[in-house]
Amino acid sequence: MPPRPVPLPNQPGQIAQGSQSVSSTVVTTATTTQTKSSKSRSQSQTTNIELEFTQRFLSLFTSFYENPSIEEIVTFPQNLQLQPSDQQKAPGRTPPFHSGVWDLRLRKALDARVTNDQLASDSLSEQVLQLRESLASETPDLNDVFVPPMTERPQIPLYLQNIQKDEDQVKDSRRPRIRSTSINFAETSQMFSERLKRQKEKSQERRRNRFIQAKELEDQHMNFVKTLHHTKIQENNDLRTTAKAKFRVLQEQRERQAREGRRNNDLIRNKSPIRGSESNRY
Hints:
Layout: H1 12-42, H2 49-62, H3 71-74, H4 99-137, H5 158-174, H6 185-226, H7 232-236, H8 239-271, H9 273-281
């Protein structure tokens, strides 16, 4: 059976028919894609992009068993605009361009770079010179490299020092301690009575000094008051008599306190065991 001849579009009518068929197919595909895109846009955008991507990838992967389509790719949701967080900072605004300012900044940057390079080269050259001097002056011996470093060790080992310390502590603990002698109540009572007597003398001396100081202040005050203007009522009242009355009251109060103190001391001495033991002896 001979093969069927292939029709060639030599005639203009056939070419026009072919072009019309191609244009019709393009229009139909465009309309279908537009309708699908409009449907996809009408759908609500999802927030879980990973789940959506996985589902659409599986549908595309399984569509190879059928006629493939690009619907899953076209209708994939766009990137959602996330709200800017606190960590995301707004991009800084670039300053306007001024040739003079930028030339000055460039010159400063170049000068700083040149100075840094010069300092680095100077430090390197200094290190090289020091290394040359050290190599020229020293004659290294390779055997010294393998010698272990010398460590400072005490004349007496540490464990012997600890043993000696423990022995000294044991000797100190076994040494008999000096026991305190028994308290002699007679001597202690005599000592405390002497201290009390000295304390009384000091208190009397301080009281006498306070009285003399107060008397001097009172005399100074009286002399100052005499220089002031006196009224008739003040002229009738003598300040000396009032001062004497006040002094008499204070003196009586001091004497009463002294009598009470002596009586209390006598009571304490009578109740003490030393006085009772002495009375029993006699």
